[in-house]
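Progress narrative, work stream C.
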Amino acid sequence: MSLTAVDLLEQLRAALDELEPLLVGRIVDIEMSRVRVLADPALFRREFALLIASAVADAEPTDSITVRVARTGTAARIEVLNERGGARLDGVTRSMTVPLAPGTSSAADT
C-alpha cells in the first residue's frame, strides 16, 4: 500500500463518478472544505464506494445521500448518511477516517 498526499474532494468526486450507474436519480450532497489526506487512491476509492453502496442499499429510491467530512485532530472523518426529506435517518451513518497530509492544518472544522 502506497500512501500519497491527495485532495480529498477530488478523490470523493472520482469515486462518485465510478458509482454513477448506482446513483442514477439520486441526490448526493458533499459537505466539506478542501483538505489533503494521506491515502492509497485506489484503495480509498474502493472503500468509499463500499460506504456509498451500503448507504444506497439501505435507502429508499427517493432518499438522498450526504457525504460529510470534518477534520478531527490529525485526521479527516468521512460520514455517509441517508436522508429522507432533508432529515437524517437514524442508524444509517457509515464512516471512515483517513490521516491528514503533512502540512494540513489539524484544526477541527467548526
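Work stream C, second folded protein:
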Amino acid sequence: MPLPSVIFASSFVPPEWIEAHGLRPSRVAPRAAGAVEREGLCPFAGAFAAAADGPDVAAAVFTTTCDQMRRAAEIGGDGGRAERFVMHVPSTWQTPAAHRLYREELGRLGRFLVRLGGHGPAPGELAACMERREAMRDEVLARRPRLTSRAHGDLAMRFHETGVLPPASDTVPASGGSPLMLLGGPMRREDLGLFDTIDRSGGCVAVDGTESGEREWPRRFDRRRMGGDPAGELADAYFGHIPAVFRRPDSGLFDWLAAALRATPVRGIVVVTHPWCDAWRAEVPRIRDASPVPVLALDLAGAGASAGEGSTRVEAFLEALR
C-alpha cells in the first residue's frame, strides 16, 4: 500500500522531516490545468491550491513565506480530501528567537504528520533520510553537464516530486550554448517551456537560482551535529541558510548571487516572476545594480498571457549576448 502523500511547495518544508515521520513527501511543481486564476492571485499559488485538492493527496503544507501562498491556503478545500496545514516561517532569520520558532513549527508539523497516520522518527531515521537526500541533490547537480537545460529541469522536478532519481542517461547533448543563470520565483510544469526556449535560442541554464532550483537547497549537513541533534541540524541547514527573497534582511540573497557568479561564470541572468509577485518584482532593480552581466526580467505566462512574447524576448536577449 503506497504511503500517504504530503505535498508542499516551499523550500522551508524539509522533505527529510516528512519522510522520517513515515509519510511520502512531494514538492510539487503544479500544473496550471485545473487551477482557476483570479485577479491579484499568483498563478503558481493558485495552481498549488488546485493540486492540494488532488485525489491522491493526504495533506498539503502551505507556508507563510509569501502572502500569495498564505491566501492560497484559504482557496478550495471543500471538494478535496486533503487536510491543509499552514506552517509559520519567520521572515527575520538572524535571531535565536526566530530559529526557535522555526524549530517549534517543525515540531508542530511533526505532530500533524503523526495524526495523519505517520509516526515519530526512530533513532537514526532522520539522519538516514538527511544523508540520502543530500546524496541525491549532489547527483542532480552532477548530471547537469550531460543534459540539456530542459532535461535537467525535468530531472530536478521529478526528484523533488518523487524523492528518487531515474538511471543516468549516457546521451550527451550538443554543447556550446551561452551559459545563463535563472533567478526568481518557483516553476510550474508549464514553465519548463522556458528551458526549451533557452536551449533552442543558443543558450543553456548553467545555474538554476529559482525557488525550485539549487539556490533554495539547504546547506550541506554537519555529520557531527546529525549524530547528536539531527532535528536541530536540519532546522539550521534549512532556516539558517536558504537565501530566500522574503527574508529580512535579504542580504543572503545577494551574497548567494555574488558567490554563484564567481563559481559559475554566466553571460546573462534571466529573472523570472509570476504575475502579482511583488517580492521578486521589487528586487529586479537591485539585481540589475548588483549584476556584472546583463539582466532580463521575464513574467512567467499565466492563463491568457502570451508565452510567445516571452520566447521572443529570450531569443533577443541571447542574440544580444553573442
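The beta strands are 5-8, 24-27, 57-63, 83-87, 178-184, 203-210, 268-273, 295-299. No further action is required on this item.
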